[in-house]
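Homework help thread (please don't just give me the answer)

Our assignment gives two proteins as sequence + structure token strings and asks us to describe the second one. The first is just a warm-up. Here they are:
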Amino acid sequence: MVDNLVNLQKKIVPEMTDLLIERYRILRQVSNEQPIGRRALAGRLDLSERVLRSQVDFLKGCGLLTYSTAGMSVTEEGNEILRELADYVRKLQGISSLEQFLLEHLSTQRVIIIPGDCDKEEVVKREIGRAAAHTLVSLLEAGKGRVVAVSGGTTLAAAAQNIRGNFPDVVIVPARGGLGDMLELQANTVSTVMARNLKASYRQLYVPDSVSQEILNSILAEDAGIRAVVDTIKHADILVHGIGRADVMARHRHLPQPLIDSLLAQGAVGEAVGQYNDIKGRQVYMTNNAGLMMQDLPRIGTIIGVAGGKSKARAILAVSRATRQDILITDEAAATEMAAVLEREEGNTAYFNPF
């Protein structure tokens, strides 16, 4: 019934579809950044202040937005409307069909697609993080695991900030060691924040992400505490990890430029848990680490891959083919580009069109 209504609306009153999606985007953006001023909101949504003014005045008149000297905020009724609209907007934008298309082409059990492109809208990245948080809590409530390994990065940091629960028997661990210079995005930090918000316990891994095998063996031989943490990580029941572009992650790891050039020449496009893969999922290069590595993943009960943005589409395909992703959480732009790549591989001239 809902699908029929969506199709009728798109055919008979397509202008109403565009208007509904625009107002939904406004409510979603305000909800994520409230309180926010009109000028800042117009910049976030790439709308003129004149167009935005008429829309926010309408939403305020409906009781969905409220104004204050600090800026706009979403009312309780507005938040309820946002929750109720989410699935309808997904259908309006053909996202349900897109999820089904990817399910048929990738070895995954579930695909969750968030409307938008996190390359262009920061709010979409936060929405992906929230979806990952909700998915993880659902698994924990269902008793699907006690040890959860999480990677670092902006999207996982968003998941940690937005997760809530009460799981004193659960242990949150970093999937791998430290990477990069931003402390708040490190796997250790993400796991700590997530554990606190879940009222769970946590362990930290004080080993750099990329070290030589000789140094790694020495650390593990001499430090019983690190060995215990590594053993816990290796026995994770659930993994929530980000997926990165090979070129970007290689630079984050400060790999030598000749090595980066070699990886790209061999076709590396995606990276996860230290493994660089080409578009077919073939391993091109692997970094050493005390934490999880690609060969450990088959032993993990549930793997959740999290990444978005059109720029990461090929990276997500590469990692999804390299190892199973039980649940893939991404955004509309990445999913649409992935579908286009898949259709080109199959020799179809028309890209995926959900309408």
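The one we have to describe:
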Amino acid sequence: MSDAIRFDIERDTRIGLPEAVFCEGKSDEALLTLLTRFASDDEKPILFTRLTRDRFEALPSNLRTTYDYDPLSRTAWHHTYPKHSFGSVAIVSAGTADGFVTHEVRRTLEYLGWTVRLFEDCGVAGLWRIEAAKDQINEADVVVVVAGLDAALVSVMGGLTSKPLFAVPTSVGYGIATGGHAALSSCLASCAPGVAVMNIDNGYGAACAAARVLRLLESVAR
């Protein structure tokens, strides 16, 4: 199995973003091979995503101790990229139920070395919460909005910021929410112009999109 793994180790030099390991669907053998390899300080930093608590806890104890693991976001790393001195992201979530996606965004950006500020539980059922936070949100260079149900927060935030905005619809919601499809449709149909929409629950993708913008801003600022 290890011979079948063709890791794109130079991706960061081509596009400015390193390859990550999507753990869901990988065999235990393949996952163990990758986790063992990237537990070395001699390897580049690598982010493991969709790594469930059960699979992480099944690893040998000496391997687990080499990783920084977060069960909510299901992410792990051995070490991270250096901290950037410029650029920040505001992550705004509708509710704490969206936390598994919200914190995938956070952890991915922190792994890449960017500054992050969280604004959780800002759903539109209590508009005073987003109103109270909007000035601080607008201090960031990029905004990521994470929302399930009808994802109305995306349109509201799209009317309150001039910053690049990436929306992540989540699979949170009852019945007709249909695993995030209602939220995705709402985001795509948003009347707020210029909102870019990620796939359902794709916090990693939103973080990478934000990082692309921040790298460009950083290069201009130099």
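TA reply:
I won't write it for you, but here's a hint about the kind of observation we're looking for: The first strand starts at residue 21 and ends at 22.
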